[in-house]
Amino acid sequence: MQMTLRWYGSQYDTVTLKQIRQIPGVTGVISTLYGTTPGEVWKTEDILSLKQEIEASGLKLAGIESVNIHDAIKVGTPDRDQYIDNYILTLERLGQADVHLVCYNFMPVFDWTRTELARVRPDGSTVLAYNQAAVDAIHPEDLFASLSASSNGTVLPGWEPERMAHIKELFEMYQDVDEEKLFANLKYFLERIMPTCDKYDINMAIHPDDPAWSVFGLPRIITSKANILRMMQMVDNPHNGVTFCSGSYGTNLENDLPDMIRSLKGRIHFAHVRNLKFNSPTDFEEAAHLSSDGSFDMYEIMLALYDIGFTGPIRPDHGRMIWDEVAMPGYGLYDRALGAAYLNGLWEAIEKQHRKESAS
Ligand SMILES: [Mn+2]
């Protein structure tokens, strides 16, 4: 595996490439062109300048998170082919720039949903949290207002004000889209882009829906082992793969994370590894990465990745806000650096144990 950190670019991120470079074992970053909007064709010069800036710091651009999908593609409106053509052009330019990993999601309207961005934990750190009763009691527009008020002045990816200004129209667009239609539209999209992915060896890595169930009555499909295997089989190409995000699949306690990882051997192209602490099945908060701070066995998750021969980029995911850092919620430096060091430690132990066992 290659340990990476997500980086939002020098214009948007409070964390610098120099800081990331100094985290032991981190060799690359996962980034994107944050100024772009879904549906737009990325400019080669912008891709190359992002890549050069990262490489000049001694890091590698390990992949893109995300190239977002225009709603026309998810809804399947008549103009979707134009947007898929644009997506293909972006993929070609990324491939020509030697980028081979693209993370994306297929969630209607909202990327991820949390009800609090700074819930205080017993140690005084603050974390993102989700409470289903709070979601059920709020209108989506009000949720956006309350989240942006506590985002420390940053723009939350997936919750951009331009996008949220059209939230009513977005909900109307998805009115007739159910899970089956969403699956069909995803299949259509993947079938069209796969020849380009084959040509440039681009691994597409779909991010699970977060949380892994329907919110605000919108359909959600990338939520469970059965659904993700259905998606792998419906377009059975190794470039059609997964971002295994423990914190997103893990929102549903029925998902057995190590078992899911093992069932996706060869199709996990990217991993997000973080821990959650459940107070009830519908109320959780984002804990430190350490197993004992949350509800997941992080050793078993890393062991499963090791067992399937995972070699792709991995990153710690949302971190707690600690040591008085002010940053985008979930994306400060300190706790993600601790997360990276901890995951590297688990990996080293697993690797050495395995080597000892195979030598004896
Ligand atoms: Mn994730």
Structural description of this entry:
With 360 residues, the chain is an alpha/beta fold. It has one domain: TIM Barrel. The chain is 40% helix and 17% strand. It contains 14 helices and twelve strands. The chain has helices spanning 17-21, 44-56, 71-75, 80-96, 132-136, 140-149, 161-164, 167-173, 179-200, 225-234, 246-249, 257-263, 298-307, 334-359, and strands at residues 2-6, 26-31, 60-65, 101-104, 116-120, 126-131, 203-206, 240-245, 268-273, 276-280, 283-286, 313-316. It has an eight-stranded parallel β-barrel with strand order 1-2-3-4-7-8-9-12, surrounded by four helices. It has a four-stranded antiparallel sheet with strand order 5-6-11-10. The chain is globular. The two termini are 25 Å apart. The model has no long low-confidence stretch (mean pLDDT 94). Manganese (II) ion (MN) binds at residues 207, 245, 247-248, 272, 317.
In helices, the fraction of residues equals 40-55%
Distance, first to last CA: 25 Å
Q: How many separate domains make up the residues?
A: 1
Shape: globular
Q: Name every ligand kind in the structure.
A: manganese (II) ion
- Major sheet, described briefly? 8 strands, parallel, barrel
In short:
With 360 residues, the chain is α/β, with parallel strands linked by helices. The protein has helices at 17-21, 44-56, 71-75, 80-96, 132-136, 140-149, 161-164, 167-173, 179-200, 225-234, 246-249, 257-263, 298-307, 334-359, and strands at residues 2-6, 26-31, 60-65, 101-104, 116-120, 126-131, 203-206, 240-245, 268-273, 276-280, 283-286, 313-316. It has one domain (2-359): Alpha-Beta Barrel (TIM Barrel), CATH 3.20.20.150.
